[in-house]
Design brief:
alpha/beta, Rossmann fold, CBS-domain, 2 domains, five-stranded parallel beta sheet, four-stranded mixed beta sheet, 16 helices, 12 strands, elongated
Length: 332
């Protein structure tokens, strides 16, 4: 019985600690929202977008880990970027930096020794410096051409008020803010994003129909007989064939179309071998543009309960997209 009050006290202490972390981060974000300098961000973005170099991000400790994420986000959203460890830079990796580049240095205090030791070399190289720090009056803040600052009205939120918590959250937000601003400034699109994400679910969902469609596909004319239609479908291995007259799309014949036509022929006493493609085909099949995203094509297949789409340019068939192609590419 004596343990319950202590357990209850521990639980409340933990709740208070969690609340402090959330409060510290929330108050810092609210402060940033009301104080960030749009002209400063525009100046940085205009410079970076107009330069021939990369954005090189550097920071020590937890700031360095945040810096790695910022560099990765910038690189994946159309801004060439990489992370440079300040200690390694001081021992030769500074050779990666050119006068065309822009440096983005992270330090909560603005006084991290390893980061500050980079500044004289960067100045000599003529590399413009941006900084993400809580203290504009720090040595780093004073050395930076662009100083992106944040406040911590409720401290870090750490129970000891020592470990970086709210500060790293704000550094991360500043990185996302800069990346997002750069994306809008340069007109970065979903198609551009797909180019940098060729693997995984992101890349597959941003593929276009023309990148997955079969450019070689079965095709018959409206007067082709049933045997010719079946031969074309067998050779094409798509469970269908297009029907075209003088290059103009007339319809499609699927496995289902043939089954239904055979059933109708049996009921009416017609010889199935007398059937032509025009007798069997579905007119005006569902078509799609080659520029449509694969994920949109998948949604259309699902909505219509069908297994393939004819890819059209005007009234001419240029490809066939099958549900198996979408499955293979992990779009669905």
């Amino acid at each position: 019985m004596s343990q319950l009050p202590q357990a209850s006290q521990d639980f409340e202490a933990k709740r208070t600690t969690v609340a402090a972390v959330l409060t510290a981060a929330r108050s810092a974000l609210e402060s940033l929202e009301s104080t960030w300098d749009s002209a400063l961000v525009e100046s940085w973005t205009t410079h970076v977008a107009g330069s021939q170099g990369r954005v090189i991000v550097s920071g020590m400790g937890k700031s360095g880990l945040v810096g790695q994420k910022i560099a990765a986000t910038l690189a994946s959203t159309g801004c060439p970027s990489f992370f440079l460890h300040p200690a390694e830079a001081l021992h030769g990796d500074l050779g990666m930096v050119t006068a065309h580049d822009t440096m983005l240095l992270l330090s909560n205090s603005g006084e991290s020794e390893e980061v500050l030791r980079l500044v004289p070399s960067l100045v000599r190289l003529g590399v413009p410096i941006g900084a993400i720090t809580a203290r504009k009056e720090s040595r780093l803040g004073q050395a930076a051409r662009w100083c992106f600052t944040y406040g911590l009205p409720q401290g870090e939120g750490c129970p000891l008020n020592f470990a970086p918590m709210a500060s790293t959250t704000l550094q991360l937000v500043w990185g996302d803010l800069l990346a997002a601003h750069h994306m809008v400034h340069t007109g970065f699109t979903l198609e551009s994003y797909a180019q940098f994400h060729p693997a995984g679910n992101i890349g597959s969902r941003l593929l276009k129909t023309k990148e997955l469609m079969h450019k070689e596909f079965p095709e018959v004319t409206p007067d082709s007989n049933l045997v010719s239609v079946l031969a074309a479908m067998t050779k094409g291995r798509l469970g269908m064939t297009t029907v075209s007259a003088d290059g103009i799309m007339a319809g499609v014949v699927s496995d289902g179309d043939i089954r239904r036509a055979l059933e109708q022929a049996q009921r009416s006493g017609q010889n199935p071998l007398s059937l032509s493609a025009a007798d069997i085909m579905t007119q005006h099949p569902v078509g799609i543009s080659p520029e449509v995203l694969a994920i949109e094509a998948a949604q259309l297949l699902e909505a219509r309960k069908i297994t393939f789409l004819v890819v059209l340019e005007g009234s001419r068939a240029i490809g066939v997209l099958h549900i198996h192609d979408l499955l293979a590419a992990k779009v669905i």
